[in-house]
Amino acid sequence: MFLTITSTAPSATDLGFLLHKHPGRVQSFAVSAGQAHVFYPEATDQRCTAALLLEVDPVALVRGRGTGGPDAFSLAQYVNDRPYAASSMLAVALGKVFRTAMAGRCDARPELPGQPLPLTVRVPALPCVGGPTVAHRLFAPLGWSVEAEPVPLDPAVPHWGASRYLDVRLTGRLRLAEALNHLYVLLPVLDNGKHYWVTTDEVDKLVRAGAGWLRGHPERDLIVRRYLAHQRTLVGTAVGRLAEVDDTEPQALDDAVPDGTADGSPPRTPNLAEQRRDAVLAALRAAGATRVADLGCGDGALLRALLTDPVFTEIVGVDVSARALDVAARRLRLDQLPERQLDRVRLVQSSLTYRDGRLAGFDAVVLMEVIEHVDPPRLGALERTVFGHARPGTVVVTTPNVEYNVRYPDLPAGRLRHRDHRFEWTRAEFRAWAAAVAAEYGYEVRHLPVGPDDPEVGPPTQLAVFTRRDSTGGTR
């Protein structure tokens, strides 16, 4: 098994600092499949290539494994492509040999890991279920230019056709840690096989290596299924974990741009987050709601405001992230609340794209700055969960108004307010979505501005209040 990583950045030999492997030495490491060797076929200031060679002993791999499995009593245990074709064993070697580089750390040159580099990755023998098309589908959305040429079964006999192996060359400008994590996850995905027992530990590895890119990948479900060997329980766990945005503090999932005006003046008091919270509270009180669920509650800012108002007799915070719920519990000081107050509030871990009986029966539910974090193809599942299954009397939704982004001087043109936003809608787009949802599920909808209502671009936040047509008020 063999792959190379080439940098053509100025001072290209800085690749050695990033990989923590000196370009002037050959280094060897014992790994579970055999011996991994790192060496540099070329190392100049203009071009530097690091190679990872994995020597696999297929006989040693089956020693001590017992007699079970599909290859038991078969020569397939001893005669196979494992020593030559990139697979999960090469990914394991990557994870061990370049662990620090994958974490994005370089103590000797701490400025290097954050710099995108012009990189070329070559994997000359990569088994790929689905052929070149799948290789393009997996790598291209990550910023790679992909060349994937099928390897012929026998160059001397062309009519035999192509093998299942590809000669893959990836070129792009990425951080080295990103490139290594892409390879770590996608090599076994392309092979569609793991050469070791897949357990819950693999979910942790996938979430860690996929941080920042896997959640929004258009082929996320395919990647998760293949990486976890199609084990349904593990796949479900991984999908939920990926939705947690583990590398982001819950409170940071709000707008990441400052609340100041276009001339750079300090934020007004109250700021936009406070105005949004107050607008939601006003809508809930106007609806007569007393039993409220905050879906995607994050760190509990709205929950704390609800808890201070005795009109709200039952308050439930819901989030897919256990970490966010821990933060909310601390913010609410649940361990210090009097029993009567504690009886009014509870926290629930749940995904908003799956039906959950615990979300049904409320007077009102709130989706405050939540929908823009959902991948557009999964919005339909959220709509069915909230409007179809939970079906509260009132639904309050807030989301950024993308038209207002031009009023933020520090936000580059075309950039969304937060890196985790999957989209941001114009006022017309939000109204069209709200009208379609209301018609589909039997609600009336009205729209309110939040923040300064600019005569040209509208307010920074748009708010919609959905009222179920057969609802008789806040209680049912």
From TrEMBL:
The reaction(s) catalysed by this protein are: small RNA 3'-end nucleotide + S-adenosyl-L-methionine = small RNA 3'-end 2'-O-methylnucleotide + S-adenosyl-L-homocysteine + H(+)
Name the coenzymes or cofactors required: Mg(2+)
Which principal EC class is assigned to this enzyme?
Answer: transferase
Q: What name does UniProt use for this protein? A: Small RNA 2'-O-methyltransferase
| Regions annotated as coiled coil | none
Any one Pfam family match given in the protein's UniProt record, by short name: Hen1_L
Which SUPFAM superfamilies does the entry mention?
A: S-adenosyl-L-methionine-dependent methyltransferases
Homology family: Belongs to the methyltransferase superfamily. HEN1 family.
Its EC number is 2.1.1.386
Spell out the residue ranges making up region: Disordered. Answer: 247-272
Domain Hen1 N-terminal, which positions? 1-243
Keyword Protein biosynthesis in the entry? The reply is: no
Q: Where is the Methyltransferase type domain?
A: 294-395
What does the UniProt keyword field contain?
Answer: Magnesium, Metal-binding, Methyltransferase, RNA-binding, RNA-mediated gene silencing, S-adenosyl-L-methionine, Transferase
